[in-house]
Design a protein that fits this description.
Elements (H helix, E strand, L loop, with lengths): L2 E5 L4 H11 L4 E8 L6 E2 L3 E2 H10 L2 E6 L1 H9 L12 H19 L3 E4 L12 H11 L5 E2 L11 H4 L17 H10 L16 H13 L5 H7 L3 E6 L2 E5 L3 H9 L6 E5 L6 E6 L3 H13 L9 E7 L5 E5 L7 H5 L3
Parallel strand pairs: 1-2, 1-6, 2-5, 6-7
Antiparallel strand pairs: 3-4, 8-9, 9-11, 10-11, 10-12, 12-13
């Protein structure tokens, strides 16, 4: 039996594409990629949507974390960014390269994807699809069942593994054809088509742009920190992140590295803050004032803030939260 590897996001398009191929007697194994920018993961390790879709389809699922490799793509995308900081074309190329590697290791013959011609402006144009195939080394080996009749013949069609007449000719951004097809197949439980990548989110993109500008050699740890708290740029080389609640305080604390400065208000409920970069006395003072401003002591004339430059012993500093005025809004990244 001919086997295919399907790139499964867990969304409606990829689920339908696999269903169309399964109906032609092809053995399919799903491959899902996760990165630190995915919204749909549980504790960063499992895509719940793809897991559920694979179970519905009755196929095996391989989940692959490509965060480290994807970080290089985000820093230096060959084909640039989308509207925010989303390197969609380079991202797809990376995923198809990994899919090609897995296909060869697994003894599969071609790749299946739920891409729809014209649905995504950056990565699902005809020209973009050609670039992806060329760059990933998969020319003729990527089957896009939902738009196959509008695209050149693929190897699986030429070899007779796939009957082209049973493929579809969906194009554009309307979801009506997919929703009807899902109804025909009895697939009723699927996620909405909202983007699952943080890099497309305007608010997160502001934080990413600030990080890329001021710390081009940023790490996975730096990106994880972007997902938490309120962010303030103190200087080009220093920033502070203030937790919003107890859960975020704990997550921020788990990301602390040697050289970071951790701040808390003494004897008063309030946030944990983390200052990172070249944090001098002035930056510690600013960080302490901001930390106090978001605590229960924000109206007091004098507040003691404990700070610790990891791994040195903790010290204390006395600040007045009232010192913060309009400048706080100017320092906040978003």
């Amino acid at each position: 039996m001919v086997k295919a590897i399907a790139l499964l996001s867990g969304g409606l398009d990829s689920t339908l594409a696999i269903k169309v191929v399964l109906e032609q007697g092809i053995e399919v194994e799903a491959l899902n990629f996760i990165t630190l920018f995915c919204r749909c993961t549980a504790k960063g390790s499992t895509c719940l949507a793809s897991q559920k879709a694979a179970q519905t389809l009755g196929i095996g699922l391989k989940v692959m974390n490509i965060s480290e490799e994807f970080l290089s793509v985000v820093k230096h995308p060959k084909y640039g960014y989308g509207k925010n900081v989303n390197p969609c074309l380079d991202c797809r190329i990376l995923m198809f390269k990994k899919g090609c590697e897995y296909m060869n290791q697994d003894g599969a013959s071609f790749i299946v994807t739920g891409e729809v011609l014209g649905e995504r402006p950056m990565s699902q144009r005809r020209e973009a699809m050609q670039i992806i195939e060329r760059e990933s080394g998969l020319q003729g080996l990527i089957l896009r069942p939902l738009s196959a009749k509008l695209l050149p013949l693929t190897v699986p069609e030429k070899k007779g593994w796939i009957t082209r007449e049973r493929m579809l000719a969906i194009t554009g951004r309307s979801r009506k054809p997919q929703i009807k097809l899902a109804s025909d197949y009895g697939i009723n439980d699927y996620p909405c088509p909202a983007g699952g990548c943080l890099l497309t989110d305007p608010g997160f993109a502001l934080r990413m742009k600030d990080l890329m500008k001021n710390k081009p050699d940023f790490s996975l740890n730096d990106v994880h920190l972007l997902k938490l708290g309120r962010h303030f740029r103190l200087t080009p080389l220093a920033k502070v992140v203030v937790g919003r609640n107890e859960e975020e305080n704990g997550k921020i604390l788990s990301l602390v590295k040697e050289g970071d400065t951790v701040l808390r208000v003494k004897n008063v409920p309030g946030p944990l803050a983390l200052a990172r970069g070249e944090v001098d006395h002035q930056a510690i003072l600013q960080s302490a004032i901001i930390t106090a401003k978001y605590s229960k002591a924000k109206f007091l004339p004098g507040v003691e803030v404990e700070y610790q430059v990891i791994p040195m012993p903790a010290k204390e500093i006395l600040v007045s939260p009232s010192m913060v005025g309009d400048e706080l809004g100017l320092l906040r990244i978003n």
